[in-house]
Every structure is written in structure tokens, then in C-alpha cells.
Design a protein that fits this description.
The structure holds two protein chains of two kinds.
Chain A lengths: L1 H12 L13 H30 L3 H4 L16 H9 L2 H33 L4 H12 L3 H14 L6 H7 L1 H17 L3 H9 L4 H12 L1 H17 L2 H6 L8 H8 L1 E2 L2 E2 L1 H21 L1 H13 L1
Antiparallel strand pairs in A: 1-2
Helix pairs in contact in A: 2-15, 4-15, 5-6, 5-8, 5-9, 5-12, 6-9, 9-12, 10-11, 12-16, 14-15
Chain B lengths: L1 H8 L11 H7 L1 H31 L15 H7 L2 H32 L6 H8 L1 H4 L2 H11 L6 H9 L13 H29 L3 H9 L4 H29 L3 H6 L11 H9 L5 H26 L1 H6 L5
Helix pairs in contact in B: 3-15, 5-10, 5-12, 10-12, 12-15, 14-15
The chains are: A mainly alpha, B mainly alpha.
Amino acid sequence: MTEATSATEATFAKSTDAPEHLSWDSGLRRTITVYIPLALFVIGLLFPFYWMTITSFKPDHEMYDYKQFNPFWVNSPTLNNIKVLLFETRYPQWLITTMSVAAASTFLSVFSSVLAAYAIERLRFTGAKHVGLAIYLAYMVPPSILFIPLATLIFQFGLFDNPIALVLTYPTFLVPFCTWLLIGYFKSIPYELEECALIDGASRLQILWRITLPLAVPGLISAGIFAFTLSWNEFIYALAFIQSTENKTVPVAILTELVTGDVYQWGALMAGSLLGSVPVAIIYSFFVEYYVSSMTGAVKE
Amino acid sequence: MDATVAMATHPASFVRKPDSWLTKLFDYKPFLVFLCMLPTAGLLLVFLTYPLGLGIWLAFTDTTIGQSGSFIGFENFEYLMEDPVFWLSVTNTIFYTAIATAGKFALGLWLALLLNNHIPLKAFLRAIVLLPWIVPTVLSSIAWWWIYSPQFSIVSYVIVDVLHLRDTYINFLGEPWPARWSLIVANIWRGIPFVAITLLAGLQTISPSLYEAALLDGASGWQKFRRITVPLLMPILAVALTLSVLFTFSDFQLVYAITRGGPFNSTHLMATLAFQRAIPGSQLGEGAAIAVSMIPFLIGATILCLYGVGRRKWQQGSDND
């Protein structure tokens, strides 16, 4: 509606102004109060990525010589840093480990969360509210106070230096988040649909499988991609529980394996950071709306 | 509506089969609740609740890596009380949390207000703004580390060689105070997107008719912000603030990636110090004691944020649903 109005306005008055734009609110004023700060924000938020990207394509002599070469641009781009990363380190293996750990822990978390959210929101047993609150409180327990006892636990289970340890511990922060998100989604599905199915003689599990889940698909996608991103980005558990080079996840490996002694290989470090960020950035670009809705949804609940 | 229901509920597959004991069991509600809660409860009890208790127990023992310790009472805490590095990490953590949270919320709120305007490419801008939050913190921290490099810092280059404001390159991470401020800037950078997008969602729920009414009553821009935007944003602000404070207070990745607590232990947060003592230093008991000392701060901060800032809504007694 508003867009249509502004479109007609624009065609008639050849003005790019928004509909609520009042006459005293001049274009200059709007530029100073809105567009310039916004541009500064965007530049500030994106600059580290830009810097990371161009550094990964710079040859060494250019990277350390700002006097001769303009640092903000690449004069003779090279793929050397990326080649070093792919063929002289175990980067491909780290990538596979990270992906499998993230996929497995996401599956485990979403599976448990669906069942828990369904029980809390739909089966409505006595004390369901309290269980929901307990799960919310679990979300507020930060990993940095859990990793020491978890390390001893993992050691007792004989899972030290084993990626399975990560698959089992990541749900500690994924399950509370996903459950909370899915409770919100289940709430939005009309209860009458389930009642009808119950009257028609469907069992509870049939209802969950045939009615509730298909209707909650957007919620499942949100929970899934969010859990995947969170496990991809996880650092402290992967740092504490994994020791051998070949089992490390990408974020840990980039930081611990590419810094050798006092000489930092900035080219390879930046290329590693770039390649480690690209997979999540690609997933993100496909599902932006789901990210926004799950992020805001979890806070609103 | 009726059509959907009919379609969804009448396929042949829902025709009642003869009830076996298994079907009956799966329709027995207490059993079903038990079954549904089992995976979540199992995971959380084994890997969250039990470790939380175990951590508190470990704090009272002299456990080291590879050797289960024995109960030593408050010895770990007594030792920490006299450890200047521990107290430095406590003040660092409080300072870091306070300044970074203030920065994040001031800039994040500003960005949310900017994005709430009618601007071209709004969805695209919103997507771009979230990037720092999506990318693994460690990897973007490595980019900051490179930006803060003593010899090749791009910031120093701009200040010294382009703007000629200084003669020497800034030693960002080599001295305690510059290092602390550098970490705070990186943390604010990483936190802005979360705050901005959450608050933007809150702003979009505020009805425009309220602003129209205020405009008719002759309210100024500041008055509209102070009397309409802020009060209506409070509930979501309180939740975002609580989460932000919790995660900034227990921050580990950013500091570990950029300074590892250096120079001379001056930028250690409680989390990085706990890691330092527990894993590379193999003093699990002492590390656990540092981690446990964070709990009272975390509980205090949560109560302060939820009931201090969110009181308005809480007093009205309105339901959170």
C-alpha cells in the first residue's frame, strides 16, 4: 500500500522521498541524519571483512609495503595464500570435520527439541511451564563456566580428542535455543487442527508427524540453520576437548595451527579466516529471513 | 479452514487399526511425555546440569589433569583472593562488560533507528549488517588482530601516513590500556548487529498511530523518542540486554584470539584466565574455582537487567505470551 503510494508519487513528482517525508524535512537534513550515519555504520561493519578479503589475495611483497602500494587495493592479485592453505595444511580435513560435527549436532538438537517443544507446548503435562522455564535458564548458562567440568567428563567417557565429544556437548547450548524457538512456532499453529485429528482417531505421534511438523517447517528450518551456524562458530569446547591436528575444527585450527612461533603468516591466516567464513556466509545469504526471524523470535518469547 | 482440516484428517491412513498394546502405550499421555522429554532431558542433565554441579565440586578440590584430586575446602578461593592476576581479571571483566555493553546498545539502538526509516535497499542493508554476527567470532577476531598489528596496522597507516595526526604507529596490543580498548572496540563491532536487529524488530511492533498522535499534539522528535519509543522498547531491550551482558561477561573467544590475555596478563577476562589455569596450566581445580566465581556475577547481572530494566512491564503484570 505505502509502496504503491510512493511509487505513484515518484512517477508524478519525480521525487525519491518516502511517503511520510514532510516538506520541512529537506533532502539535505535527511542525508545528514540518515544516509551519512548509515553509510558509516555499513563501512565500519564491513571493513574487517574487506580487509580480510583483500589481504588474502595480496602477494607478500605488497602486503607489507604500504608506501609503494596502495594498501586498500590489490595490484597483482595472487591465489598463493589460498593454495598454501588448501594444499600445505590440513584445511580440507578440518572443513570436513567441522561440517560433520555441525550437521550431526544440529540433527541431534533439532530432533530432541522438536519432541521436547511438542511435549511442553501441546501435551501440556503438569509442570510443563516449569520445564520450559528450566530450559530457558539452561540457555543462559555460558559455555565458559561449563568447559572445565565437561573436559573431565569427556575424559572419563574416553571421548577426549574425539569429534563425537563435540557432537554430544554442542546440544547444551543448541537444545535450549531450538526448543524455545519451536515452542513459539508450535504456539502459532491452531490447536483445533490437532483436536480434529484426535477425534478422527489419529494417535499423538501421527498428529506430530502428519500435522504439526509439516506446518512447522519454517520453524524447523530456522532452528536447523541457526543450530548449524552456532556449531560451526563454536570455539571453546573445540579448543578444550580436541588436541590432535587432524581432528580440529576450522575456527580452532586456523588460530592454533597457522600461527607458528613468532612469525605470523598473515596471508595464510587471512585466507583461512576468509575460507572459514564463506560457508556460513553462503548459507546465511540463502536463509537471511529465517535468521532474522529466529533471532528476534527467540528474544521476543 | 474447514477444507484444510478435512483434507488433513481424513486420509485412509488415519483409519483406526485394532489397538495393540503398543499403540495404547504410545497414546498413554504420561508415557508419551516421558518419551518426548527423554532426549532433551538426557542431554541437558548429563552435559549441562551434572557438569554445573561437578564444576562447583571441582572448585573445592585440587584436581589436575590426569589426577583426580581430593577435597581441600576453600583453599583454591583463598589462593585466588591473594592472586593479583585474578583480581585484575575480575576488574577487567567488569570494565569490559560495562563499556562494551554500553557501546553496543548506544550504537545498536542508533543503527536500529536508522534502519527503521524508509530507505532504499532496506532488506539488503539489514542482511549486510548482520554479517559480523554470523561469521565465526574467532575468524573475524583474527581480522581484528591483523588490523591491530604493531607494524602493519591499517588504522595506524591511515592516522600516521595519510592524516599525519601522529608520528609513530600505535602499539595497539603491546600495552595494557590500548590492548583493553582494542578488545572493547572489537567486541562492540561484533555485538552491534545483534542489538540493532533485535531492537529493530521491537521498533517495528510500535504502532505508527502513536507517533501520528504525538505529532498532532506537537511533540518534538526527542519527546517522541523519550515518551513513546523508549517505554515501548523496554521489554525487548531488557531481554536483549540480559543476554548481551551474560555473553559479554563470559566472553572467551575474542580475547583468546586477539591477545590471549597478554601483554603480561593485563587483558585476561575471568573466562580466559580459567582456561589458562585449567587446560594449558592443568590446574583443573583452580580453573574451576575461577569459573565458579563468575556465577554470582552472572546471576546478579541477570536479576539487575531483567527486573531493573524490564520492571515497567513486570509491574504491569502483563503476560509475556
